[in-house]
Amino acid sequence: MLKPKINASAVTTSTPLDPIRALERLRRVNPDITFVRFLRQDYSGVLRAKVLVIEACLAMIAGGKFLHAPPMALDCAVNSTVVPGTDPIGVYWLIPDWSTLQLHTTPGTAIVMCGVVKTTPSSPVPNGELCPRQALVKVVREAAQRWQLDFLVGFEVEFQVMKLSDGDEKGAVRHSCGQGHFAASSLLYPCWSYVEDCVRKLRTLDVHVEGLHPEGKSGQYEITLGPLPPLQAVDQLVLVHNVLKHTFSRHGYMVTMSPKPVPAVSRETNGQHMHLSIHPASPDQEEYFLAGILKHLPSLWAFFLPQDVSYERVGPFMAGDYVGWGTENRKVPIRKIEPGHWEIRSIDATANIYLTLAAVLSAGLLGLAGSEPLIWPDMSTGDWPNLSQEEIYTHVQLLPRSLDHALSALNDDFGDLDKMLGKPMMQHYVKLKRHELLQIQKMGPEKARELLVEIF
Fold first, then answer.
1. Distance of CA 359 to the CA centre of its chain
2. pLDDT of amino acid 126
3. In the chain, count of helices (H) and strands (E)?
4. Strand stretches in 266-359, DSSP E
5. The domain 138-455: what is its CATH number?
6. Is residue 355 over pLDDT 60?
7. Is the pLDDT score of 166 beyond 70?
8. According to its UniProt record, which protein family does this protein belong to (predicted)?
9. Whole-prediction pTM value?
10. Start-end of CATH 3.30.590.10 domains in the chain
């Protein structure tokens, strides 16, 4: 722990809090707090943590110091291998957003979300150009300052419950069951009581849960989160994932939001649909914003679907498979619900959601800046609903069908998106995901599936 000169306001859209007062306030209500977890999500979507005991945490804050992470902190693939050529010199610093400080469901534990900055001996000024959290903060501020626009974001968390196989099958197998398609009979199975237990715990943590239900696939559940400002919505989503994992593990099971938790012979997939609303916006601004997202959708695919297995969701009624939108249309990637409110159906839980949302907002703001015309028709109107899927494909731009193709599309889009996200971040993301893609392919499909089930 050292004392670099760091601007903590770069990792929050809230008014920065005094950390000592925030911790002491939490301890007055919960005097048994022993541990503080400093959490961040890396480029592979993996939640990583460092933990301090409370006395060390208070001493660190009093000394104006910060926790450090090794120079490969943002260079790890999902299997924790490091990108070749990673610079071994320098330090990443974890910058807490103390407005996120709260209890965890683990007794005696508090958590706080962090951004990251880097310093090196030759460049001691903290550099946050690779920090996904800072990227989202920057885009949200740009929208507010340049266009006086705000956003609300909500997520639908789809998941299944797995257990370690006690038969001939290897690894984790599905434990949750039920008829699917929202059948009330699914509420009779033991897993449902654990889902309700999770929601009770989330409510004690002030998570904005709107609803829960058995989802469309057998043994699949969904928890719907209410709308919040972008950064708070993503922080809440990360907490929900963590609480789901923790709660079911205490019962001997494993929750997974992985996009394809069972082998490829099954059509069972999990998505993480994102609701996004923009306001106050004129009808023209709404169209420009949507057009910007659609224009960049092939390159955004690399953020939405960041694993090869993610592309088993590409198709109608899942992630979609061509550039398009439609009013209350679930066959396309973007469903319009009402003016200025869309559901982006393509994202899954292996994504770094800070970076993904920053990329979506960046694309939309580029559309605003360029007054991008909405040349894509509403696929719910005219003759479109009457056309077969094959007929539609002759009139639309198909989206990438593999991570390799999506990364190539992103690489080709550097000239636009890097105006908002910055070229170093874009280049770093592509480099890491290319390395990760090779690592996953070397593992083979079954071991890769098991890894993603465990992590996500």
1. 11
2. 84
3. 13, 16
4. 274-279, 325-327, 334-338, 341-344
5. 3.30.590.10
6. yes
7. no
8. Belongs to the glutamine synthetase family.
9. 0.94
10. 138-455
